[in-house]
Structures are given as structure tokens and as C-alpha cells.
Amino acid sequence: MAHNYADGLADGSARISADAVPHFDVTAEDGPGWLRAHAAELRSAAVERGAVLVRGLGLRDAAGAAAASRALTSELMPELEGFAPRVPLPDGMYSSTLWPPDQPMCMHHELTSAARYPRRLVLSCLATGAGGGTVSIADARAVLDSLPRDIVEPFQRDGWQLVRNYNSLVGVPLSDAFGTDDPSAVSEYCAANGIAYEWTASGGLRTRQTLPAVTEHPETGERCWFNQIAFLNEWTMDPAVREVLVGEFGDEGLPFTTFRGDGAVLDRETVEAINEVYERHTVPVPWQAGDLLLLDNVAAAHSRAPYTGEREVVVALGDPLPRVRP
């Protein structure tokens, strides 16, 4: 029998504390039916605490993860404008981001720069690997409250800029980022979605977007630090990787980097200060193979630690919302 989150708050049966993700224990027999019956409760818990963990479903493959994900969302969306590739899977699912396993994925929200972003993420852990790979979350409301005002105010006023380069050597392939590699279709997509773009002499594409750094939660109205200012900035890159990329492509040829909303270059100290606040609010999720993590993509940022071995996590991007333009 599953723990009930609301009852657990009253009698202490659910594993909840001020610095932990709410945790439901179920059985494999409960399955998607239990998730559908408790979807409102689970989504509410995710809004309140950023994410909720469901253990005991015994998820072993992408088909089972898809059924569980659909029980918790009203619609699954395709990924466009992702910052790194994923492998598309049947039933609207994706692999986790194809990011080097020895490199951390720092705190970020999914698709904050895209024309549509997921309100919810459903992460299903099919295999943990040999070690590492911890997923953590950080409350976007608490992060905003903790950031120094002199950092927040210019971003809140002017937004932030994301510059990306796509070519055959760096960046996500056009077909992955835009669903097509037809230059005219890509140009049309950029123009329709407020993305400044230029085609380079070598056939590559460079884009620039100005985006809001703070957004209101669609359900509670709370202000959230909702962006990828730090994660996609060159100063968050592994220094050795940055040195190689700058040496090969120059400062303007990085696959992505970020700027202040007025186009001014971001200094290392500002980026490090944002990452330090994220670190102070980081809460690890102690998940196991077969677990499901429902994450509110606006209320919480998420990260992934380096790992070894054959780790397998599949992802559903759920309940899309249109990006609010600055």
C-alpha cells in the first residue's frame, strides 16, 4: 500500500523533511492506475517542493516509463531548441541528455529559451550505473530570494541573452534543434519565434535571443529564477573544454554562451555567484533503479552529477507552455 502524502504530513508516515523531496512508496501492482488516481496530489506536492519521488513501481523499460509518464501529464511534447542531443524513444519519450558522463550537468530548467517549454518533467530511472549520477533539485523561488539584488535587478530589467552556434563540428545538429535541416524552414522558425539569426559563410548558423530571467509560476504566481544564464555560460564550462573550443572556434564560435540582456559580457564572478547560490540550495534525490521522479520544471531547477557505468534514465517532457517574451 502506498503512503499518502497528505496523511504523511499529519502522522509522519511519509518520508518528508524540510530539506528532502517528498517520497511515496508504492508497489508494482499499483502501477499507472495508482499514478492516475493520485496525479493531482503528486502534482501538488511537486509544486510545493519542486519534485516528488515515487518508489516501488519497478520501472524497467521505456514502455513502462511512458505509461507512468502519461498518467501524470495531459500532453507530452517534442523537444525543439535543446542545448544537447537526446535519443527519441517510442511513445513520446526521450533518453536523458547526451552529456559526457564525466562532466556534471549544472543546475538548469529544461528549455527555458525555447518557444515552448515543459511545465513538468517525468524522469524514470531504469539503471543507476556503477556509481555517481545523482540527480539534485534546487527551489527556483528560494534561489531568486537568495541571489544578491545587484545581480538580480539588471537581469530582471533587461533579461538575458543566449548566443548559439550550429555547424557540422559544434553544437546540436539543426535537425535535432529545429526538427529540420532545411535552411529556409529553420530561418522561418527563427523569425516566427523572435530569434535573431545569421547564416555564416561556411553554412553554419548563429542565433541570438533575449529572454526573461524571472517568471511567475503558472499555478501559484510565485516569482521564480527561470533561466540558463549560468549553466550555458562559458565560465561554467570545464576550463580545458573551454580552452579547446575557444582555440578552435574563437570567442564567438562557442556552441553556446550567455550575456546580460543588453549584450554586455558576463564576468566570471557573476556566473560563479549564481552557481554558488544554486549549490547552497541543492537537494539530492536518493533514487534507485525503478524509481520515478516528477519534477515541476518552473518551481525547481535540476542537475546531474558525473557517473560511471551504464546509467539509463528516460524522460518525458510534459504539459507544454509557451515562453513568455520579455
TrEMBL record:
Residue ranges crossing the lipid bilayer per the database entry: none
Domain of life where this protein originates: Bacteria
UniProt domain TauD/TfdA-like: residue ranges: 30-315
One Gene Ontology term of the molecular function aspect: dioxygenase activity
Cofactor: Fe(2+)
Entry keyword set: Antibiotic biosynthesis, Dioxygenase, Iron, Oxidoreductase
Entry-linked InterPro entries: AlphaKG_dependent_hydroxylases, TauD-like_sf, TauD/TfdA-like
Descriptive protein name: TauD/TfdA family dioxygenase
Taxonomic source organism: Streptomyces tubbatahanensis
